[in-house]
Amino acid sequence: EWKLKNKGTHGWHIKYYKGLGTSTSAEAKEYFTAIEKHKLDFTWKSKKDGELVDMAFNKARADDRKVWMNNYADGTCVDHSQADLSYEDFVNKELVQYARYDVMRSVPCVMDGLKPTQRKILYGCFKRNLRSDVKVAQLVGYVAEHSAYHHGETSLSGAIIGMAQDFVGSNNINLLVPSGQFGTRMSG
């Protein structure tokens, strides 16, 4: 609908915001002058709120969290026009989205055995048509720029190094050629 109103996306640029450090001073000033509009007060409404918080953070309740994540209906979200938010709504509408996304990033896909970060690294390697050695930092920059990677260069660097490790115990069939020092069984 937005694309139709604005004649497509030509001339528009999407900026990814990750924390306040991404915002300019003018954007921060604009946001904080209307802080009451953006603020949500959390309210403890019942014993169920405490039960849900316990379920979300108690290590012994992993099975309950699996059921909780599987029961989430896509599209369920918090109504930000309301002035307050119950812990129940926060846990069941916001925190569950984070939990599902975290699992998606952390657990390899059954189809190809790759995590999204590893898939983006391979995409970057194929797009750059890598045939010769390249420094990890150079590949990090290229992958971050061309694959919509938003989770920090240190994390991406660690994933690239992990994909090149070939020593016994690395729990890995290296998909990248380990040209240089990529760790040993003793040092990791």
UniProtKB/TrEMBL annotation:
Its EC number is 5.6.2.2. Its cofactor is Mg(2+). InterPro entries: DNA_Topoisomerase_II, Topo_IIA-like_dom_sf, Topo_IIA_A/C_ab, Topo_IIA_B_C, Topo_IIA_dom_A, TopoII_euk, TOPRIM_C. Pfam families: DNA_topoisoIV, TOPRIM_C. One of its GO terms (biological process) is DNA topological change. The keyword Thylakoid does not apply. This is DNA topoisomerase (ATP-hydrolyzing). GO terms for cellular component: nucleus. It comes from the Eukaryota. Keywords: ATP-binding, DNA-binding, Isomerase, Nucleotide-binding, Topoisomerase. It catalyses: ATP-dependent breakage, passage and rejoining of double-stranded DNA. The keyword Isomerase applies.
